[in-house]
Amino acid sequence: MRRAEKTEVCFNGEKISIENIVDIALFKAKPKLADDNAFRSKIQKSVDFLERLLAEKKIIYGITTGYGDSCTTNIPNHLINKLPEKLYTFHGCGLGDMFSQEQTRAILATRLNSLVQGFSGVRFELLEQLILLIDRNILPVIPQEGSVGASGDLTPLSYIAAVLCGERDVLYKGVHQSARNVFNELNISPISLKPKEGLAVMNGTAVMTALACLAFKRAEYLSQLCSRITALCSIALKGNSHHFDELLFSVKPHPGQSQIAAWIRKDLKVFDAIKNSSRLQDRYSLRCAPHVIGVLQDALPFFHQLIENELNSANDNPIIDGVSEHILHGGHFYGGHIAFAMDSMKNAVANLADLLDRQIAQLVDVKFNHGLPANLSGAPNETVIINHGFKAVQIGCSAWTAEALKLTLPASIFSRSTECHNQDKVSMGAIAARDALRVLQLTEQVAASVLIAACQGVNLRLIKGEIHRSTLSENICCTLDEVGNVFDFLEEDRALDSTLREVVSLTQAQHWTLY
User: Fold this and answer.
1) I want to staple 25 with a disulfide (CB 3.0 to 4.6 A). Which of 50, 102, 240, 249 is the partner?
2) Residue of 61, 67, 172, 221 marked active site
3) What residue ranges define each of the domains in the chain, with the CATH number in brackets?
4) What confidence category does residue 277 fall into, taking pLDDT thresholds of 50, 70 and 90?
């Protein structure tokens, strides 16, 4: 998107939203710092307060002392300014895959929003450098593994601190190269971190919170998509639309569950369309779909609250209150709320994969699909015996579902005492968030597969004349058309991997028109 078309997100210490972070991550918005005097004054007061305390030779954790368990070690004045460099240097031990471009932009924006609260003792210059990295898309190359989620996401965030100083590597114009070379090319001056600024950048929950913002928007969309897929499956399987009746759901009034039922009911045109079910009650993966999807839908507002509160918090240590002139030592770097949200989200999302896997199992099985061809094959009679339609796709769905379900064990229960037992209870929030993103990926793969399978099933009914397009809702017709643009009706067998990848990508781009 061209820069002129982007909206601006103002960072001024006031509340920003999950959507703001996602928009910045996806290049739909650009960040800017507020330029009003009150905001600048609050930032400067915490800096001035710290400098006065340093001049008075006060003892302040992580500024005039060592880090973590070394907090009892006092640092001589002539070494204090070297501490931040040492902090990001010894934390340069991350491993694993690197965060994606979008994830890294979200992490930068999330850390920026914590620092603009004005309780971290950082200079305006550092905030401007973070804005510059996002705006010019100079992205620190950050390994995903190495954080235990308290003291925050220290190791991954060390890669941001180092890049601010012109060290380590960045992704710029699609190429991994040294930050120093890129800064020289663009005439950007590296900064030298002041005594509190290393802790301020690194000692917080920005990685897990950024990933949680991205996960939330994907889960929110997936809840809607699973509702649409369920409606398509109900049509293809000659389901009983009365299972989604408004009166039925009024007696168990979970609002999210009722919303899911309402969406499916609207898709099915209840009381106007298909009522020719041969079963009084459909199997649970159809009949109880609102109850399964509704768990996630009802949990989303709670997840939203936890994530957005963390996003708009000062979460490093110590907290520097320059206005009231207090140094507050605490544990706001602990990522328990994000860990709980992500552990809970991945459970609810994996259950969607399990639901859809059972739906496609019905679609392909002649014992349960009410007259559809085996494996949803659209092959003509003379070759139907050698064609296998969606047989392997259904196997793939089971594999992806099993992997998703395996990852639902809460990461937060695996707290490990570390760092000489100073960090003796940690959140594992970054691991929980990474798990949640993996579960979302796997569930989106299942959803993409069942989406095209359900459309194949509905199209088979249309071809056989068992239903007519005029009886289908506008929503269902819209999805049939959108999917039909990327997935040709499956007659003779063909490899579907490239199509599945495209449908997964379109799902993650929230391409499908839903509710």
Assistant:
1) 102
2) 61
3) 3-204 (1.10.275.10), 211-508 (1.20.200.10)
4) low
